[in-house]
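User
New here, help please:
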Amino acid sequence: MWNEHYLLGQVKDFIGKNRLLTKEGLHLVALSGGADSVALLRVMMALGYRVEAAHCNFHLRGDESDRDEQFAKNLCYSSDVPLHLIHFDTAEYASLHQVSIEMAARELRYSYFRQLRHDIGAETVCVAHHRDDAVETLLMNLLRGAGIHGLTGIRPRNGDIVRPLLCVSRQEILQYLDSIGQDYVIDSTNLQPDVLRNKVRLNLLPLLEQMYPGASENIARSAYYLSEAEKVYNAEMANLTPREKRSILSAPSPLCLLHEWLSPLGFNRSQIDQILTSLNGESGREFVSPTHILVIDRESVVVEPVCAPLKPLVIPESGTYRIDETAKIRIEEVGVEAGISRDPAIATLDAATVRFPLTLRTVESGDSFQPFGMEGRKLVSDFLTDRKINLLAKRRQRVVVDASGAIVWLVGLRTDHRFRVTPQTSSILRLCLLLAGRE
């Protein structure tokens, strides 16, 4: 005869080891009515935790959906557990947001659980994933070519979502329910091998167990070892700085380093392979993800968010003008007693030599000027290169041009020598770049 106390002991130890729950707090149990969620509710009650339950009716299985709701009501009523119910038009949500039915149901339920947890003051949302679920997830990720993060199964905790049953198998859950005489409902869609997870559960795992008895438990153990190795991996990755080519190429695994850095920024596997290959090539190569742009510079790899091109700003006269959400430019004429500014965000010019309107714009190909203190003209691009400005920063670099087309200020870096303040200057034109918080 199956001993229910064995499973309770396993779960109790697992909760304590992973610090999932407190006896003082309130915990919300996601209750579908299936065997796993029913076992979770009964186990948490048996272990003395204070619980409330939440049931979602997704209206996807006709009478079955209503049957599940009624079962949850009856179970919670007989167990004296408060139950929260919600109904979703899942098909409409999926159509509106252009996602699959499975994804729609997931987004709806987790959004509801988190809001409900906040409303009732619960510490956690408890969901009934078990060891076999973790094994299925690992196998699915393996088939998709996942890296180390995808081969660690399902985590016991993800923020306020906790999984107290990850230490036990589906068979152990069924044996536990049978031992306490607790019934449950069966979701007929879980019995159809129509989606990948069901195929893994119904076809692949039984075959693996037939070929190698204990396969599921062994895979779960491997996932645990990988999760421990992942901690070492993450710590090592955190100590690496993937900005300089040299530091990337000297890493134990440059590919892993680039993957950890660039995947969250939207770069795909093929791009990351190409970026690695390009590190030893000619500088200037670009790669673009949906959200970021990467440029391989001379000694570094530069990544920035994709931004809209900066539009030229025409400045007809003195005053303060808004450049964008983060900056303004103020133009004012002052007396010579104000002196020459040493602040790189302020340019001081001989007012008599500057012709309005001024234009604030980004650097264009062929732009040149005479840097203050130098003889002869110099291409702006060469000036920026000499100052080791990276390629993306070069594209963002602004200049102020007067009505004659001459660059009077390479903003934040250098004024043009021809517009300098001299002993003959009678008034000064002061250009001030005002960043957010500096007025």
Summary: The mean pLDDT is 90.
